[in-house]
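note to self: dont lose this again. the chain is below, predicted strucutre after it. 157 aa total, dont forget to put it in the shared folder this time
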Amino acid sequence: MDTMYIEDFKKSVVIRLLVLPCIILILLSGIIVYYFTVHASEQLEKNLVRIASDQRKFIDFFLSEKISILEFILHSNQYDEMCQPGFIHTLFEKLQAESKGFVDLGVFNEKGIHMAYAGPYDLEGKPCSETEWFQSVKVYISWRILTSFSVLSASSL
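---
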């Protein structure tokens, strides 16, 4: 009987000294991993939001700079002068020498016909009045009552 009691006592001690601390260690490890994961996710999200915000600011600055250049050209030249053969090509070459930010440059009339064009596509004299981008630009032009430059991408052709 004493040996049975001693065996039960040994089992009880083993359970208390080995199993119970292991259970506590596993629970604490799970809690630590959970909080670490939550904290790491929050930090990652904050960093991604900051990076996206910085990129948005950079793109806004880049585009506003290009718009300023185009508005300067628009206000410092007459429409008839810009439609003269070679004028847009010369202007486009000067822009390209300073920055590769312009893919092409064009002057179009109120009917959407490119009166002058410089760039990799054959658009001079071509109508663009049915394109989606021209419809949105047309509203802008009508509102400002100005001739505008078009910055095209291959996807808008």
